[in-house]
Design brief:
single chain, alpha+beta, STM4215-like
């Protein structure tokens, strides 16, 4: 069995953390599923950039990384703003409940959000509110599967 890259482990931990929220239930996806319209309201993880810096000189060197992850709240067009805000509250509360995900990462926090907007990428318009998270983690440079 292949051990997963830490970013995959982090994404899976975020999905687990957000699954079961009152508003979105089990509608939490790592990437956009084909049947998204049937699953609204939903949360969709979108992977962003990642930045790395070497923290030690000893071999193997420790790489300290910043992983950018967006959590998009997606709702049916016409959903009241109060419902979007309530889903946002639930997401922020869940994500802050253990910022290290049991020691998998060093820290994680909300860095901002974009304005809610309507997306026309699917068959029907969908309301979207992206929340931006920064996740700090470290690993040996030759073992991107192992937290350091």
């Amino acid at each position: 069995m292949t051990v997963k890259h830490l970013t995959q482990q982090i994404a899976e931990a975020v999905v687990t953390r957000l699954t079961g929220l009152t508003a979105t239930q089990d509608n939490v996806f790592d990437g956009e599923p084909r049947a998204l319209l049937q699953a609204l309201p939903a949360l969709v993880l979108k992977e962003g950039a990642e930045h790395a810096a070497i923290a030690t000189c000893a071999i193997p060197r420790r790489s300290e990384r910043t992983y950018l992850l967006d959590i998009e709240i997606k709702v049916k067009d016409g959903t009241p703003m109060s419902e979007l805000r309530d889903i946002r509250r639930q997401v922020e509360t869940a994500m802050a409940s253990d910022r290290t995900f049991g020691g998998l990462v060093k820290d994680s926090y909300l860095t901002g959000k974009d304005d809610p907007h309507i997306s026309y990428d699917l068959e029907k318009p969908v309301g979207v509110m992206p929340l931006h998270y920064e996740i700090k983690y470290a690993c040996p440079e030759n073992q991107p599967t192992t937290p350091a």
